[in-house]
Amino acid sequence: MKAIIPVAGAGTKLRPHTYTQPKALIPLAGKTILSIIIDQLEEAGITEFVFVIGYLGEKIQHYVQKKYPHLTCHFVQQNVREGTGHAILLTKKVVGDDEILIVLGDTICEGNIRELIASPVSQLGLKKVDDPRSFGVAELNDAGDIMRVVEKPQIPKSNLALVGIYKIKETDQLFDCLERNMTEHRRSHDEFQLTDALQCMIEHGVQFTPFKVSNWFDCGRKETLLETNAILLSKYKVPANPMLPYENAIIIPPVSIGEGCNIKNSIIGPNVAIGDNTVINYSIVKDSIIGSYSNLYEVVLKSSLIGSDANIRGLSQSLNIGDNTEIDLG
């Protein structure tokens, strides 16, 4: 089985960070979004991955090859972003007739992945949500099978959202449906959707059953990203790098602090993730994510997302700042 991870999106909802950093590489609970996904799948036994890259794709490729040299990794370029269906279709030659597990690169799902891989039928990850209009939605029949999937319906007939993890046994039929939709210009919300291809497969007799997802973290927006960071810091019990001396500093867990950081005269935490080689002095930081090689001096941050190579001086309360930024709030 091969795992396909589409990571070609521009991450517009997380700008300005995604101008210089792929969304999948934003730090999260001492890791990155992408490394959490890969580690989860590798632990379940998957050793071959196909990454659909595009925007800042060379950073994705460099990161994966450096961090996971022991895995078999393929990189497929999506130069024009035409939707998830188009992204998956580009992997056809690499996939062949193998079974596949598709995991979207901005979503972290928790469940029994080994059980999903071993399923004798195709499965789609589902989770009940309060407002499913922003997601693909699945409807079940009386037998509990999935009888219909629709992308972002205005009037949903179900509150079961597709959470971004798909186990497909009938790959030939999947690619046939994707090609048919492309040829016939069948778009939903102006894109070629994977959801539409799955519905095509259902209409041609392919059985899909639900895969129960215990937890689902959507990392596509600042608010949900910070919330996910807090949850995963507590869940993973990430150490704050106790080998480093922090002069006159108070660390309130859960906190993740990268290598080479210089922190003094500050209060850090709770729920803070800090990248490598960042300097923080005379500051208070809580409920935030700070990138690598940043400098914070005399700032008060809460619920903030700070990119890499940022320089901030002065006082603030909540910021959303991208890479290579310099701000003086004094």
Overall description:
This protein has 330 residues and is α/β, with parallel strands linked by helices. It folds into two domains: 2-223, Spore Coat Polysaccharide Biosynthesis Protein SpsA, Chain A; 239-329, UDP N-Acetylglucosamine Acyltransferase, domain 1 (3 Solenoid), CATH 2.160.10. Helix content is 23%, strand content 32%. The protein has helices at residues 33-43, 57-67, 84-89, 92-95, 113-118, 171-183, 194-203, 222-236; strands at 2-6, 27-28, 31-32, 48-53, 72-77, 100-103, 107-110, 122-128, 136-140, 146-151, 160-168, 208-212, 215-218, 250-251, 255-257, 262-264, 267-268, 272-274, 279-281, 284-286, 288-290, 295-297, 300-302, 305-306, 311-314, 320-321, 326-329. A hairpin with a 5-residue loop joins strand 9 and strand 10 (146-151). The N and C termini lie far apart (55 Å). The model is unreliable at 10-20 (pLDDT under 50). Pfam families: NTP_transferase. This is Glucose-1-phosphate thymidylyltransferase. Keywords: Transferase. One of its GO terms (molecular function) is transferase activity. Residues 2-233 form the Nucleotidyl transferase domain.
